[in-house]
Structures are given as C-alpha cells and as structure tokens.
Amino acid sequence: MGGPVDPRAENAWLRSYPFWDAYFAIVLVATIVAIVVDGGAPVAIVLLLLITASYAVWGHKAVRAPVAPIKEGWWHVAAMLVLFTAAYLVAPESAVALSALIPMTFMALRAARAVAVMVAMFAGPAIQLMAENGAHPLLITVAIVIGLSANSLLGIFIDRLARQNTGRARLIEELDRTREELAEVSKEAGILAERERLAGDIHDTLAQGFASILMLLQAAGDGRDPHVARAAQTAKENLAETRALIAALAPPALEGASLEEALGRLARGFELPVEMTVTGDVGVPRPVEEVLVRAAQEGLANVRKHARARTVRLELEQVPGSAVRMSISDDGCGFDPSAVRDGYGLRAMRNRVARLGGTIQVTGCPGEGTTVAVELPCSG
C-alpha cells in the first residue's frame, strides 16, 4: 500500500519502532518478575497484561501516528492510567512499569498533555516510596520535582524528534513529487521537440513531394485525361492531409499571440468557414492555452478528415467558477460516440486535458453533426 517514497521516508524514527516494542516487552517482563519475586498480588500481573492488550489494540497505532494525538492514543492512555493505578495499589512493585509507560505516553499524546498524565502516574509511587523510607517532606518534594523534570525533558525530546522526522518525511515526499513533475515537464518538452522535428521532416519531404507531383500533373494534363485528373486530385487531397498533419505536430501557435488570436489563426486557416465566438474575458495560464490550442487543432483536423461538414462553429467562454470552456461543433455526418472507440488524436487530447484536471465531452448523432467540448480550470 506504500508509495514509491516510503523507503526513503522511512527515517531513523520509523525504524526505531520495533526497538520500542521490544523495550516495552522487556520492561513488562521485568515488572512481572519483580512482582512475583516480592510476592505481590497476582491481580497486578493481570492488570499489567491488560495494559499490554490495550497497547496491541490502540497504543501500537497511537505511537506510530504521524500527528498525535489520535483517538486511539486517548483510549490507550486512559486505560494505562486506570490499570496502572490499580496495579500499583495492590502491588507497589508495579512502579517498575513506569519506565515504559511514561515514554509510551509521550509517544501517544506528545508534550503538555503527556506531562499531565505522567504527573498523575508518577507522583503517587514517588510520594509513597519516599514516605516509607522516612524522608523529609522537602526531600520528597525535591526528588519528585527532579524526577518529573527529567522525565518531562525526555518526553519533550521524544516529541520533538518525532515531529522533526515526520516533517522530514513530508519534505521528502514533496521533493519526490516535484521531481516527478519536473520529469513530466522534461518528457513533455522532449515530446514537443520531437514533434517539431517530425513536422519539419514531413514538410521537407512529403509535403514538398506532393506539391511537386501536383505541379507536374497539372502541367502534364490538359483536363481531358481522367486518370491524370484523378491523380492530381489525389495528390491535392494528400497534400492537404500532410499540411494538416504538420499543423498538428507543430508547436501551438501562441508565440507572441493571445489565446483568442491563436484560435483565430486556426479558424482563418481552415478550409471550411469557421464561426468563432468568445464570451467573457478569458484569461488563463500558458499551459491551459497550449492545451486548448492543441485541442482546437485536433478537433478541426477531425472535422476535416471525418465530418464531411459545410460549416464549423468554435466557441470559447469563461465559465463561472474559475474554468474555461471551448467547444467545436460541425454540421457534418455525425456519429454515435458510444459506439465508436476514440482514435489516437482524441486519446492524446484527453490525456493532455486530464493532466491539467480538465474534462472532454464528445456528443453527436448520425446525420446531425458532432460537438467536442473541453473544460479546464483556469488555475492550470
């Protein structure tokens, strides 16, 4: 269930948890041995084992929580406080368990709350021990203050170490996310560079070749030979397809132009009449502009190749709620989107739009044209 950053985020604090579990187990065994050796009440052992059960059910999760306290931590600490107090009342040897219970409290609750719980668990045994030894009240007070202070400092150290390592793990995750984003940007830049190179190669070879063939056929034919006319028409159609492919591969026409201007160029350069309307003051980041221009290129290319349309309508509008919407509609033959799989161009368009958190909707009906609608958040 872990992500790719888990091994690196697993710092020294996380790796220490098994050692803490072993320490808690050792202290529990030592406490039980002390109770048995001193002839303490067996019920104290049962109460200590119940604390172990509480740790297995709640405490194990609580001490490992990235941010404390969680509800399991409160339940475990409450169970610890009640069960330890009862165990100490019937067997004072249970005080040995404090060396594990106090660190456990700081790991489950952290800082100030843990200090209050520690005082409740520590004060009673300390006072009773000093009183039984006939110590002066001032000495008892000083000893309690020193003991509480030392344990508080240890607890605060545990708390700060846990917070520091949690922050470090979060920072590593953010760095890895940034690295993945940079890798994606680099990949996209490489793809764009390769597309531009392919567009140049196609222009220098296929496009110029079809143009030359068309010129030669037009020069050789006098309009009466149907085969020459057919060859010229085929060369003309293939030249148009090649130019459309070059336009789709070339970088978006945004250099030195606004989004509206770039879309206007595409509309004016299209073979069919394109009615373009812009609603609202459309202002979006450059990545969103590039995706919209790419989507317009692909949408118009699909109209050219498949629609057999007479007119096209391109609409761009600012949608309430910080989004921008672009739609390309034609009056062509149409199709049922649910019955046809997406082609490569539409899949590529969906991927680009999805990377920016947008959506694409294709609607149409045989004989009634097709509409491709792209909606993207303005934040990019």
From TrEMBL:
Chief localisation class: cytoplasm
GO function terms (MF aspect): kinase activity
Coiled-coil boundaries: 161-195
Catalytic activity: ATP + protein L-histidine = ADP + protein N-phospho-L-histidine
Enzyme class per UniProt: transferase
Domain of life from the UniProt record: Bacteria
A matching Pfam family: HisKA_3
Cofactor: [4Fe-4S] cluster
Chain segments annotated as transmembrane: 20-37, 44-61, 73-91, 111-131, 137-158
Location relative to the cell: Cytoplasm
Domain Histidine kinase residues, every copy: 292-380
Record bears the keyword Kinase: yes
EC numbers on record: 2.7.13.3
InterPro entries documented for this protein: HATPase_C_sf, HATPase_dom, His_kinase_dom, Sensor_HK_TwoCompSys, Sig_transdc_His_kin-like_C, Sig_transdc_His_kin_sub3_dim/P, Sig_transdc_His_kinase_ChrS
PROSITE patterns, alphabetized: HIS_KIN
Metal-binding found in the keyword field: yes
CDD domains the UniProt entry points to: HATPase_UhpB-NarQ-NarX-like
UniProt keyword terms in alphabetical order: 4Fe-4S, Coiled coil, Cytoplasm, Iron, Iron-sulfur, Kinase, Membrane, Metal-binding, Transferase, Transmembrane, Transmembrane helix, Two-component regulatory system
Purpose: Member of the two-component regulatory system NreB/NreC involved in the control of dissimilatory nitrate/nitrite reduction in response to oxygen. NreB functions as a direct oxygen sensor histidine kinase which is autophosphorylated, in the absence of oxygen, probably at the conserved histidine residue, and transfers its phosphate group probably to a conserved aspartate residue of NreC. NreB/NreC activates the expression of the nitrate (narGHJI) and nitrite (nir) reductase operons, as well as the putative nitrate transporter gene narT.
Name this polypeptide is given: Oxygen sensor histidine kinase NreB
Species this chain originates from: Nonomuraea helvata
